[in-house]
Amino acid sequence: MAAPLTLLLIVAVTIRAVLFRSSLADLISERVEVVSPLNAWKRVVEGLALLDLGVSPYSGDVFHETPLIIYLFHFLVDYAEIVFVVADGITAVALYLSVQIYNKNVFRKQKYALEADRYPADCLELLRSPKEMFYIPLKVAMFYLLNPFTILSCVAKSTCGLNNAVIALFILCTLKGSAMMSGILLALATYQSIYPLTLFAPALLFFLQRLYIPVNLRRSSFWCFVLQYAFVYVGSLVVITGLSFFLLGSWDFIPSVYGFIFSVPDLTPNIGLFWYFFAEMFEHFRLFFICVFQINIFFYTLPLAIKLREHPVFLMFMQIAIISIFKSYPTVGDVALYMAFLPAWNHLYRFLRNIFLVSCVLLACSALFPVLWHLWIYAGSANSNFYYAITLLFNFGQILLVSDYFYAYLRREHHLTHGLYLKKKDGTEATLVLK
Amino acid sequence: MAAHRYSLSFLFVFIFSNVPLHCSCDTLEQADSIVETQRAPQSNKATANRAEFNERQWQASDTELDKDETTDSQSLRGAAAPPVFKDQLQEELVIRPLPSGDIYASFQFRTLWDVDFLQDGHKVSHYRLFPKSLGQVLSKFSVRELHISFTQGFWRTMQWGQPFIPSPPGAELWVWFHHTVTDVDGNWRELTNVLSGIFCASLNFIDLTNTVQPSASFKPLGLGNAVHIRPVCKDDQCTGKAWELRQTLNVVFDLYTSGQGKKEWSLFKMFSRTLTEACPLASSSKVYGELFELSPSTPLLSQAVVLGDRRTYSVYDLSRSETFGQLRSLNLLLRWKADSGMKIYSIAVYLLMYGLCYFLADMLRPLLHAERYVSGFGLQIGEIHTVIYNNHPYRAFPVLLMDSVPWYLQIYIHTLTVTSKNRENKPSEFSLQFMIVHE
Q1: pLDDT recorded at residue B134
Q2: Confidence band for B425, pLDDT divided at 50, 70 and 90
Q3: DSSP-derived secondary structure for B217-256
Q4: Sign of CA dihedral A309, A315, A316, A319
Q5: Given an 8 Å threshold on Cβ–Cβ distance, is A55 in contact with B407?
Q6: Are B44 and B293 in contact (CB under 8 A)?
Q7: For the purposes of burial, counting CB atoms within 10 Å of the CB of B72, is it exposed (0-12), middle (13-18) or buried (19 or more)?
Q8: What sections of the protein cross the membrane (chain A) (predicted)?
Q9: Is residue A181 part of a domain?
Q10: Which of A14, A324, A415, B426 is the most buried (most CB within 10 A)?
Q11: What is the Cα gyration radius of chain A?
């Protein structure tokens, strides 16, 4: 499988290189769907220029990336394009390997369950075979690299690509079973933008499952492991934050990065839900709504973790999707990350109910975003309501996609335990509903 | 204004400035002596030349003070001993035809008031000529110097030369506080709110987000602190402090020419009225017209040094009743004489005057002036270009540009490019100061 992967990487790099050299690169760097105030490349250059002038890069409310990024690009600013292409490549390879490992795990579990005769007789067609799973990792890598969202994000040199790389490496280390590396990479991802904090739960569940530690709050082995993992995670986070402090010599970055993410002062339109709400809202209620919106992201972790405690990888996918949809400054690069996982759930296709609607909505919205932006900002004949309508529709499409996959996954699991043809008590056919 | 053939005002400028002086000296013009300071050269406040000029003036006219005042009051009020008022008002109007054919009319009302707020326990309750609203503002906020200007329109420096006091479009407020003020920001905020109430202008929107405290440019006009320039009098001759309130109105009229190249204007055509009397409260009231081909003619002429070259003005003293003539009204006008029998002569005169105007235009062209424009389209991205012109034939000048940008206009420092003569240039010094960020 190395050869097709290499070919894929070459094709992806070629596409990106061609786009970098064309005139589209400048145009794409300014699109608000692709860059946000958090991860725009122009702002990174501005931060570097301010650092060269001797002023703190966080003054003037322009630069909102972490100090490690500034120091990375302090040395690599001339090779920025290569950095982002390499980041995309790393993400793709990490996803490829992760899904490969995941498939092996899935297949192994399935084999044991079959031998233990745990599946009802009629659901054998739901079982997966190595043959059908053979090309899934390649498809995952392809879905990531050749996704137009990813290409746009890379050509715009949005630091979202670097965040995606860190999260992909975290997933790889988790699936490989290395708790130490997983903790460190999760700390790095959390340091970049706070939301990967919620990925702590699926990673923990995965390790517990892997080490055969039952999730029992009264057992000491459970707490032992939780504390170890938490220690690695929190410790690395503290070390990385302290390192940033020593790099720049001040704590300026905490209100500029984390304060900015949480309090959403910049209401530049993007594909997220925050900007319009907070533009229309009275100052009096702002704090309340900020709390509501931010809690929304962290809130789904616990119920989902309870429901999906046997399936931590799917939980990870759900969590990444929820972060991408509900974060304060989403961009299409975040969307591309969870979409890359969709080939891994190919077998759920028969249970998906809304896939046609979702794909039409997402395609139409992606096409309408630039149109309505132009009408609003340049032609002056539309206003923010038009653009926000498309934003709402886009997020609606994403939520429908995620919930559809959730439903399909759960339904398959139900069928695997209760049989494919479900009957109600009186013998008529039953349908499963997600409540 | 149907009677008008002229369309009004490219430029409409109010300028108020308070300048405390060390001495209670006065600036009376004499018919053949140097004219006073408001038409002093150099719009840049921070030059030593102006200081010397001021100094010379004050000293020259110092001795004339008492004599003239007594003469005036005697002629107006008769033999009784007049009450000595601490304040006096002088009004002037300068009319200058600009090289592009427009007329620049500049009104100036100066009130000199001999009082000192900043002494402890010295409360002022009687206001005669000096406006009470401004006086109370000055004493409450410990203001040392204040300039406020409201401008509508755009001054075309290249065509019109330098204005007497340059000011940008919109409203501009410069304040120097006394050194006893500890909380400058709080004082500034209250002062802008009070001034916006007095002038019915939205000055209270000048808050900390578009205020700057310049560190390198712009020093006060009046009293100097020890480091910088321009005390107006020598210490031992000054008896105390005085306030000078200078209110200026500058208007540029667009002449509607009849197409024959005749440039004809008169006070009646510009303002739809003539002058019938001087202000009774004013101690001096004069009209200065720049060209001496004016009618009615006047024996009084005065000269002044404006922008480095000497100009001659015809002076009409409105406090003398013979200025108004038999009709009891004064209407300044300029009329070209073009008789049919003397066509050649008139064409020659016309060409001569045209050449003179051209020559004047050269003389009036300012040495340094700046322009700014915005480029780009749409609401998302744009560029600001500031162009500075140096018209000196051989000399190069170092330029200090101070720019204040509000928080909602996000400019990127790394996109700053300086080009001179189509070549890339770098500023020798670049200082960046971030003021308060909006909440």
Answers
A1: 78
A2: confident
A3: S---SSS--SSS---SS-GGG--S-EEEEEEEEEEEEE--
A4: negative
A5: no
A6: no
A7: middle
A8: 82-102, 166-188, 194-213, 225-251, 257-278, 285-306, 351-373, 385-407
A9: yes
A10: A324
A11: 23
What tokens does A333 get?
């690069």
Report the gap between the CA of A377 and the closest CA in chain B (Å).
5
Closest CA to B249 of B149, B142, B170, B368: B149
Residue appearing with tokens 């030059």: B47
B78: left (phi over 0), alpha (psi -120 to 50) or beta: left
Q: What distance lies between CA B362 and its chain's CA centroid?
A: 22
- Tell whether A433 is covered by a domain: no
Measure the CA–CA gap between B27 and B55, rounded to whole angstroms: 11
Domain span at A29: 2-346
Contact B269, B4 (CB under 8 A): yes
Partner-chain residue, chosen from B378, B412, B432, that has the shortest CB–CB distance to A53: B432
C-beta separation of B168 from B107 below 8 A: no
Residue with tokens 């530690």: A213
Q: Please name the residues in contact with A9: beta carbons below 8 A apart, sequence gap of 6 or more.
A: A89, A92, A93, A145
In a domain, A90, yes or no: yes
Q: Which residue has the higher pLDDT, B246 or B128?
A: B128
- Subunit contact A60:B437, Cβ cutoff 8 A: yes
Residue B264 clears pLDDT 80, i.e. is over it:
no
Give the pLDDT of residue A278: 92
The Cα A66–Cα A237 span in angstroms is: 13
- Interatomic CA distance for residues A405 and B318, integer angstroms: 92
Strands B383-390 and B282-289, how do they pair? unpaired
Among left, alpha and beta (phi > 0; psi -120 to 50; other), residue A327 is beta
Q: What integer pLDDT is reported at residue B166 of this predicted model?
A: 66
What is the tens place of the pLDDT at every residue in A105-150? Answer: 999 999 999 898 888 888 888 888 888 889 999 999 999 999 999 9
DSSP letters for A154-210: HHTT-THHHHHHHHHHHHHHHHHT-HHHHHHHHHHHHHHSSGGGGGHHHHHHHHHHH
A-chain residues near B377 (CB < 8 A): 378
Interacting residues of A322 by C-beta distance below 8 A, sequence separation 6+: A198, A297, A300, A402
Name the residue with tokens 């909102």: A64
Predicted model pTM = 0.71
Min distance A362 CA to chain B CA atoms (Å): 25
Find all residues with CB under 8 Å of A275, minimum gap 6, and list them.
Answer: A264, A267, A268, A269, A388
- Rg, chain B, Cα only: 24
Reduced to 3 states (helix: H, G, I; strand: E, B; else coil), residue B350 is: helix
Count the Cβ atoms, other than its own, within 10 Å of residue A232: 18
Q: Under a CB-based contact definition with an 8 Å cutoff, are residues A62 and A47 in contact?
A: yes
Q: Which residues of B touch A (CB under 8 A)?
A: 377-381, 407, 410, 412-414, 430, 432, 434, 437
C-alpha distances out from residue B386 to B370, B428, B430, Å? 7, 17, 16
Name the minimum distance, in Å, from the CA of B168 to any CA of chain A.
Answer: 26
In 3D, which of B170, B206, B178 has the Cα closest to residue B191? B206
A198-221 burial code (b ≥16 CB/10 A, e <16): bbbbbbbbbbbbeeebeeeeeeee
Place of tokens 């962290």: A298
Crossing angle for the helix pair A160-176 and A179-192, to the nearest 10 degrees: 160
Structure tokens at B342: 């003397």
Name the residue with higher pLDDT: A75 or B380.
Answer: A75
Omega prior to A255 cis, within 30 of 0: no
| Lookup result for tokens 């989403």 | A330
Burial of residue B322 (number of CB atoms within 10 Å: 0-12, 13-18, 19+): exposed
- Residues of chain A found within 8 Å of residue B414, distances taken between Cβ atoms: 45-46, 48-49
